[in-house]
Amino acid sequence: MHCPFCRHSDSRVIDSRTSDDGLSIRRRRQCPECGGRFSTIETASLNVIKRSGVIEPFSREKVMSGVRKACQGRPVTEADLAVLAQAVEEAVRQTGSSQIDTNEIGLAILGPLRDLDEVAYLRFASVYQAFDSLEDFEASISQLRADHVARAVDGDS
């Protein structure tokens, strides 16, 4: 790591701490040449392969932006969206892959969004899964109802 002050090609790590819920490491460094101290943040790169074949870095903000549209007019806060985006990033990082398709990100969004707001979930799913007819909506609503019944039965046990 080059020193940002004197551009010396080496530095010594003084302290390391995890940050951002363990997704990154903050390192405090000191230059052996000039004695200057500085911090670095290290993260494992995660790239998204878009449908067009373009590869770009994963962005929580893009996840939030896409989900925000489905949540318009719903009682969902920015903090809720930030938590959802973090859960999605953690889920895709757990795959162990450094590159992930947009399709897999969409699948990772569906579960947390369903738990957050079912109407927003239906909106997102209708676009993401390309609902073509009322039957597609009915099937998704039927699945939501069946899950409600299953949760109610599990809660009674």
Provide a descriptive summary of the structure in words.
By secondary structure, the protein is of the alpha+beta class. The chain has 2 domains: 32 residues, no CATH class; 105 residues, no CATH class. The chain contains 5 helices and 6 strands, in the order E-E-E-E-E-H-H-E-H-H-H. The chain has a 3-stranded antiparallel β-sheet, with no helix packed on it. A hairpin with a 4-residue loop joins strand 1 and strand 2. The chain is elongated and about 70 Å long. The mean pLDDT is 91. Negatively regulates transcription of bacterial ribonucleotide reductase nrd genes and operons by binding to NrdR-boxes. Belongs to the NrdR family. Keywords: ATP-binding, DNA-binding, Metal-binding, Nucleotide-binding, Repressor, Transcription, Transcription regulation, Zinc, Zinc-finger. It comes from Microbacterium saccharophilum.
User: How many helical elements?
Assistant: 5
- Overall geometry: elongated
The percentage of residues in β strands lies in: 15-25%
Query: What profile does the largest beta sheet have?
Result: 3 strands, antiparallel
Low-confidence segments, given as residue ranges, are: none
Helix content: 40-55%
List SSEs in N-to-C order: EEEEEHHEHHH
Supply the number of structural domains: 2
| Cα-to-Cα separation, first versus last residue | 57 Å
Side-by-side strand order of the widest sheet = 1-2-3
In round numbers, the mean pLDDT is: 91
Structural category: alpha+beta
What Rg is obtained from the alpha carbons, in whole angstroms? Answer: 21 Å
Q: How many runs of DSSP E, i.e. beta strands?
A: 6
Family: Belongs to the NrdR family.
Biased composition (Basic and acidic residues): 7-20
Zinc finger (unnamed): 3-34
Cofactor: Zn(2+)
